[in-house]
């Protein structure tokens, strides 16, 4: 009698724990709002809440059976839920974006988490992880000495839960019963992952982002269709105006943007004074950034490949980690410059494993990847832990001076990366209109140092004998502005950064561009600098004429009007469809276009 009562009690406690953990995830996702979490679970989306609880129960049973101990399995499960919940809260706060399955691959980025969390909280979390891991190893060893009946029960539970997790991982299959159960009440919103998570719950949104193709096959895709497109644009390729092969330097500046454009924010002084002096002498303007507060790797993917994230399935949240390492041959600006005799080098003064850059840069074809451990110049500014832009530019200059072949150098800076508060003791700028005053003012000083470094860099390039072209842009706004300030601004305000294209010999004409997208950088540069274009770049130039900039749910027309839907006439739609077919062909299809010189 007492034994049965004990089992019933344990069962009830497990069920209550699973429900509580699910509620905890909702609480973290909804900015620590108990009211929203409770309403989601028991009033608005009860069916989805209990479906998610079933998924969590399967995970719990797997951990318990794997450890061979209810106590240890519960400890591992609880720590995992706590970390995922906290990470969700942090990411939603800084980037208005939930945790995706692919984010779990960053679990080993200890340096990054230490900088974000602070030394104390990071060490506490690390100690907890070490402690629970040690407890698991000890209990796993002891589990082999369990009684025969308990071993049988454990193995049966482990097999059932493992098969359950494998089945759940195929959530996006049309025949998946769990997905069908969700579909009865779920409203999936492909264009907004944030709303997906809000409408279906953390677990539902998480599952929606498992195992997905890069793109759905466009109508009319075939080898013949691709051949027709490649032949059409091969005829349009522009020859080079000279045989010159200038150096090309890409600079993706972390979180570089103009805070003066934000409504409700008042800044004393001009932190971008030096940047504007450079920009006003050349082709410059605004760049449409896919995300607010993050998405660095996605902007980099677009700028290097010429492929748009807008055309990818919404679950393809980070091509660098989810797609590129699986592709044997990916045409890009890297492969193009190498085919034309350039040496290609990437510089990122940080950890090589972030966003799988080591693997990605290898796939793209870079000859060398210089990171924080191999860079020669490691100077920082005051309390800023990151290598300064000035030091990074010096590394670029060293390469340009030493190497004989023309150079393509891709630099991803780190100086202006979060967290910002406490970076600088001497701050020359003050801000009003945002409660995060300290972080914003440190950020202003950061971008001022970045502006100065860029101006010094372009001046030193002018003294070199070889012509050098520079494409500089900010990847996204920093995720530091308060909710109140964000509410005063439109999507356009929060998704535009700065860009410019500089020529050390001054041959690029000064012109202002209202807004562009990063996948247009290379064709624009080649056209304006008088370099030989490619058929693919000609396609992009045609596309730019009809849609000057676009990202998911953000489309800018030639009158600089912003739309949530793409509006094209029949002839314009043909160009857009050609681009979509080519992108599908390379990223998901048979790569028929590589059989020609379409990308050369």
TrEMBL record:
Gene3D superfamilies assigned to the protein according to its UniProt record, in alphabetical order: Alkaline Phosphatase, subunit A
Sequence ranges assigned to domain Sulfatase N-terminal in this UniProt record: 246-530
Matching Pfam families: Sulfatase
Primary location recorded for the protein, binned into one broad class: membrane
Superkingdom, taxonomy of origin: Bacteria
Subcellular location, record wording: Cell membrane
Pathway(s) annotated for this protein in UniProt: Cell wall biogenesis; lipoteichoic acid biosynthesis
CDD domains linked: LTA_synthase
Transmembrane segment boundaries: 49-71, 76-94, 122-140, 152-170
Topology in membrane: Multi-pass membrane protein
Keyword list, A-Z: Cell membrane, Membrane, Transmembrane, Transmembrane helix
Protein name per Swiss-Prot or TrEMBL: Alkaline phosphatase family protein
């Amino acid at each position: 009698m007492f034994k049965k009562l004990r089992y019933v009690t344990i069962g009830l406690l497990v069920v209550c724990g699973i429900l509580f953990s699910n509620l905890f995830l909702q609480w973290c996702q909804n900015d620590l709002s108990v009211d929203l979490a409770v309403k989601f679970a028991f009033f608005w989306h009860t069916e989805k809440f209990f479906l998610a609880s079933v998924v969590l129960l399967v995970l719990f049973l797997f951990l318990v059976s794997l450890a061979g101990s209810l106590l240890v399995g519960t400890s591992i499960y609880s720590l995992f839920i706590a970390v995922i919940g906290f990470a969700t809260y942090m990411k939603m706060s800084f980037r208005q974006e939930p945790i995706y399955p692919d984010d779990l691959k960053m679990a080993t980025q200890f340096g990054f988490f230490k900088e974000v969390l602070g030394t104390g909280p990071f060490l506490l979390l690390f100690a907890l992880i070490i402690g629970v891991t040690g407890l698991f190893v000890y209990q796993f060893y002891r589990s082999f000495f369990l009684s025969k009946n308990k071993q049988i029960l454990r193995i049966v539970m482990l097999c059932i839960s493992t098969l359950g997790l494998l089945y759940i991982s195929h959530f996006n299959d049309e025949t998946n019963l769990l997905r069908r159960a969700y579909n009865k009440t779920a409203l999936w919103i492909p264009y907004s992952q944030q709303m997906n998570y809000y409408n279906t719950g953390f677990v539902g949104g998480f599952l929606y982002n498992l195992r997905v193709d890069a793109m759905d096959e466009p109508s009319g895709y075939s080898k013949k269709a691709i051949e027709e497109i490649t032949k059409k644009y091969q005829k349009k390729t522009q020859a080079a105006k000279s045989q010159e092969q200038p150096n090309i330097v890409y600079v993706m500046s972390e979180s570089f943007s103009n805070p003066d454009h934000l409504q409700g924010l008042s800044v004393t002084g001009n932190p971008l004074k030096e940047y504007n002096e450079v920009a006003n002498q050349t082709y410059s303007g605004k760049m449409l950034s896919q995300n607010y507060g993050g998405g660095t790797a996605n902007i980099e993917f677009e700028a290097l490949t010429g492929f748009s994230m807008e055309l990818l399935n919404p679950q393809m949240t980070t091509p660098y980690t989810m797609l590129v390492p699986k592709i044997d041959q990916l045409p890009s600006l890297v492969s193009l410059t190498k085919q034309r005799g350039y040496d290609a080098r990437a510089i990122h003064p940080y950890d090589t494993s972030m966003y799988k850059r080591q693997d990605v840069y290898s796939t793209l074809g870079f000859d060398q990847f210089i990171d924080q451990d191999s860079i020669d110049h490691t100077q920082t500014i005051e309390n800023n832990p990151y290598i300064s832009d000035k030091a990074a530019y010096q590394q670029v200059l060293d390469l340009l001076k030493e190497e004989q072949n023309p150079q393509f150098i891709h630099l991803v800076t780190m100086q202006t990366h979060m967290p910002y508060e406490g970076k600088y003791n001497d701050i020359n700028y003050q801000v009003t209109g945002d409660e995060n005053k300290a972080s914003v003012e440190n950020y202003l000083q950061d971008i001022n140092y970045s502006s100065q470094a860029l101006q010094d860099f372009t001046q030193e390039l002018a003294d070199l004998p070889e012509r050098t072209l520079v494409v500089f842009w900010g990847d996204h706004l920093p995720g530091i502005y308060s909710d109140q300030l964000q509410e005063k601004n439109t999507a356009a305000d929060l998704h535009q950064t700065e860009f410019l294209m500089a020529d050390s010999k001054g041959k690029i004409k000064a012109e202002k561009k209202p807004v562009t997208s990063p996948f247009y950088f290379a064709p624009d540069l080649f056209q304006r600098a008088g370099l030989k274009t490619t058929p693919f770049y000609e396609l992009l130039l045609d596309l730019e004429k009809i849609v000057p900039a676009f990202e998911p749910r953000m489309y800018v027309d030639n009158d600089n009007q912003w739309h949530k839907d793409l509006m094209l006439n029949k002839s314009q739609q043909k160009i857009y469809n050609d681009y979509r077919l080519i992108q599908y062909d390379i990223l998901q299809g048979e790569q028929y276009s590589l059989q020609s010189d379409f990308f050369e």
